[in-house]
Specification:
284 residues; alpha/beta; binds flavin-adenine dinucleotide; oxidoreductase; FAD binding
Length: 284
């Protein structure tokens, strides 16, 4: 393949970065250092998580507000519906829209322990948001199937409902098996989902933390990944290099397979995401 061709293809790549609200002053400094570095890559948007480990909605909104004030970035709050009633959600939607927040990552949120039937699904939230205003909406997708889904097909139909309700794109749960993403993307196309299925890339710098996330999120950690991080428990530098290299390999294959949009779970750090973007041709 010609170098010129691959360089011009590289130009079309869009990236987005996900952050979580910091809880301490030093975490806050880390977050802002990361935002400042990553904003030079002109992401199409950045998002800020809410709930679960991310605390109250105010915390999310405050970070969103600061990003809007301090940078020119499009900032999308994550919004979950499982912990609010319809009236509250409509008010939140109005408040967001009126304060210039027009992009939302719409989620159901995790069931509180003990409860089994949610009051709402994410597709209901997408519908509600679209009734309030013409938000740009991202929703979640699961190449390795959501833990509560009756079947892979039922999960796919749930995603289709979210897209039909007006979502603009789906962002996947992180994964390490690129084939599982590619198969999933094919299955999405086969049931008529035309929007982008944006791969969520988690650059791994702490393998033990990853294991906790993966266990919680029902994501397979392949044996080869385990082997790559073996013996590095006390060697952060090498872990970063290995983690970046793994993600670089993944995005290279994905990009060759025609993926043009990438979402990075930054964990509020910039180094790995920045380097991976660089190899994709996404540069200041
Ligand atoms: P849904 O799309 O509603 O799906 C939930 C489950 O219900 C699935 O198993 C689905 O198959 C099933 N289902 C859907 N519709 C129906 C129906 N009509 N009948 C029966 N079953 C149905 N969590 C947070 O708390 N805060 C965050 O900031 C956050 N950010 C995230 C970002 C991304 C990109 C991703 C991938 C996940 C995020 N999560 C977050 C986690 C998410 O909230 C959980 O995975 C949650 O359990 C499911 O949310 P969902 O939006 O995918 O739900």
């Amino acid at each position: 393949e010609s170098l010129n061709q691959s360089v011009s293809e590289l130009k079309k790549i869009n990236v987005s970065f996900e952050f979580f609200p910091p809880t301490t002053e030093s975490m806050e400094n880390t977050l802002w250092d990361s935002i400042e570095r990553l904003q030079t890559l002109k992401p199409s948007f950045v998002s800020v998580t809410y709930g679960a480990n991310s605390g109250t909605r105010d915390r999310t909104h405050n970070v969103i507000k600061s990003i809007q004030e301090r940078t020119g970035l499009v900032a999308a709050p994550h919004l979950t519906c499982i912990d609010a009633n319809e009236q509250e959600l409509r008010q939140i939607a109005k408040d967001y829209w009126n304060s210039g927040v027009k992009n939302i990552v719409a989620l159901r949120g995790d069931l509180p322990s003990g409860s089994s039937k949610p009051n709402m699904y994410a597709s209901d939230l997408v519908e509600l948001l679209k009734q309030e205003a013409d938000f740009d909406i991202s929703v979640a997708a699961y190449p390795e199937v959501h833990s509560e889904a009756k079947s892979a097909q039922a999960d796919l139909q749930a995603l289709k409902r979210k897209m039909d309700a007006g979502a603009n794109r789906a962002i996947t749960q992180f994964f390490f098996d690129v084939e599982s993403y590619l198969r999933f993307r094919d299955r999405c196309a086969a049931i008529g989902i035309e929007s982008e299925i944006v791969p969520g890339i988690l650059p791994v710098s702490n393998y033990n933390t990853l294991l906790k996330f993966a266990n919680f999120a029902n994501v397979k950690v392949p044996n080869w990944l385990h082997q790559q991080f073996q013996g590095l428990d006390n060697d952060q530098n090498t872990r970063n290099l290995v983690g970046a290299s793994i993600a670089m390999d993944m995005v290279k294959v994905l990009s060759r397979e025609g993926v043009k949009d990438f979402h990075f779970y930054t964990l509020n750090r910039s180094e790995l995401s920045y380097a991976i973007c660089h190899t994709l041709g996404v540069r200041p």
